[in-house]
Structure formats: structure tokens, C-alpha cells
Write a structure and sequence with these properties.
Strand content: 15-25%
Helix content: 25-40%
Number of strands: 17
Distance between the termini: 53 Å
Mean pLDDT: 96
Bound molecules: S-adenosyl-L-homocysteine
Number of helices: 14
Structural class: alpha/beta
Shape: globular
Amino acid sequence: MSLREILTAQISAQGPMRLDDYISMCLLHPEHGYYTTRTPFGAQGDFITAPEISQMFGELIGLSLAQAWLDQGAPATFTFAELGPGRGTLMADALRAASRVAGFNEAAQITLLEASPALRQVQAATLHAYAPKWIDSTEALPEQPTYLIANEFFDALPIRQFVRDGTRWRERQVGLVDGTLAFGLGPAQPQPALAHRLEDTQDGDLIEDCAAAAPIVATLSARIATHGGAALVFDYGDWRSVGDTLQAVQDHAPTNPLTAPGRADLTAHVDFEALLKATAPCTPSRVTPQGVILERLGITQRATALAKALSGDALESHIAAHRRLTHPQEMGNLFKTFGIVPKGAAMLPGLEI
Ligand code: SAH
């Protein structure tokens, strides 16, 4: 049975599905899920992420976290964690750059949160020199200093969508019309958890809610507040956005989220307000555009140094990669970042103001 047939049978038997359940099945179904069955990143895949565009991204992040480690007294053992590491490229680039910081790599215990067995295998191959360990949830992060990165992880977590109807909300669902998957709206119901969204929306507005995100940020913030450490989160999104941001991408082109279940990547904008609220026991930085932090961390100097060894097509693609990561009309503004450190600790380099 294909995933479409499985979904159709389930909806026929049980009625329309919540959008978060639909997204979970599309991304992580054990046999047919998008992440569970393929390695979708890079020029050959469906989409390309910042660490796959250039080694400079992971290098600068590794150095920022290594500086935070020095600032906090260089603890002798710590967790160096990544949420949703993809092909392991970011972590490998970060560790290569951080190896210049004496003692950092020796003290780091590499810990990866990854739901996909196929991607765990790719990560194992990329990072074999560093003996990584995998965990199934942030609760399993060891009770010790924790330095953590997440790039394009939170946008892959399932969302629900609600359309405002007076002071109540109608949930967007996946149902069937003539046997074909189709969006519909459930009955208007009160949603106490969305009370704050009555302030900034009008009748008919659509908003999104990612229930899984805040508990993850709360858990890692608790580790960092208790034991020390820092986290850097990169993703695309905004502060409390309004409107449908669910996006399906297949072969570098947008597609309808319902036409190819399990074969297209599904993501949604991250609500940075919700993530920042969950950092409570720590100090968060401002939400800062990706282009701004990369410039502050010295990407142009690094790009210039790397360019010296390049010529021809390799030089052109290096220059294009620098632009793509930082230019406001490319990833520089749509993607944003924030850092977390324990209260009273120095903020991560690049995020001090
Ligand atoms: N950080 C990588 C990959 C981003 S894609 C990069 O920048 O290239 C999202 C990653 O998160 C994938 O590795 C995917 O398998 C993983 N992922 C998605 N949902 C997850 C979940 N619920 N739990 C753990 N990992 C998840």
C-alpha cells in the first residue's frame, strides 16, 4: 500500500485528519516517510540547506559555540548536540573549525537527535571520527553542560492551522472529496491556548501552531540553565506570523502538500515568539537575521581567504554561495537565528546586541 492509500483508508474509516498528524505521517512514516526513506538535501536532492551551500556556515557556528565554551570556563566534559543534523555536514564543519580551539573537540561528546534511520546512517558515515551517539528526544540529553545547534529543524515539526471565526477557531483538516485528499475546515471551537492570537488577528485569518516546538526548547533551556552551555537556532520564519506557510517542495520546485504524500518535503515557518517564550530559565538573544550574524562572525573575511585557493567555476560558485547565505533577497533575511545562554553568562559571539 502506498502512503496515499494508507491515508485514504484511514480518513475513510475515521473521518478528516488533523494537519499535524498528516504532516507526521508524510515526513516520518516508518516505511513511506519523506525523511525516513531518503536523503533529500543538496544539489541532487529536493532542496538545499545553508550547511550544504557552503562549509563557511558550519565553521562560523562551530567557532561561535567554541567561544561560548571558553567564556564559560571550558568545561572538561560537555554535550555538543545537534537537532536534525541532516547529512551531518554542519556538525563536521563545526568540529573541523573548532579543532583550532585547544581542548574543545576532546571534551565534546557528540549527540545527535535524529528521527530518520536512513539519515542516521549518513550521519554515522560523515562523523565516524567523532564517535557520535544518537538520542530519540531532547529529554535524553545528558545532565551536563550542553552546546547545541539546530538548523532547519523546527520548520520540519508538524503544525496545526486554525481559521478565526468570531472568538472561536475552525481547524484546517485533511479529508476526502470524491476519494481525493482535500483540505477542509472543522467546526468552530474555543481554543484557550490561542487566546493571545485574538489580539492580532481578525475574522477569517489563518494562524499556525506548532505544539511540539516549545517543549523541545524548554528542555534544552533547562539543561543549559542548570549545567551551562549555549544553543544557536537557525530557521526561516518570523515573529507571530499570520497566513498559510505550509510549503511542499519536490525536485527544487513547490508542489501541493496533498499531491505527493511522503515524496515532498513539508515545512512551515517557525514562530520565533513561541520558541523564545520557552527559553525562560535562560537569557535569549534578539532574533537576528542570518545575514547579519554571519557578517558579524566574519564570513566575508573567511570567504576572501577561501577564494585565494579557487579559480574558474569553483570560484564563481564560492562567490554565489557567500551571496546566497547572506544577501537579504536570498537567505540573509528570511532565515533568522537566536542564541540562548545561562542567565549572567556572556552572549554568543555575533548575537551580543
Ligand atoms: N540540519 C540539516 C537538515 C535539516 S532537515 C541541514 O541544515 O542540512 C530536518 C532534519 O530534522 C532532518 O535530519 C530530519 O530527519 C530531522 N527531523 C525532522 N523531524 C524530526 C523529529 N521529529 N525528530 C528528530 N529529527 C527530526
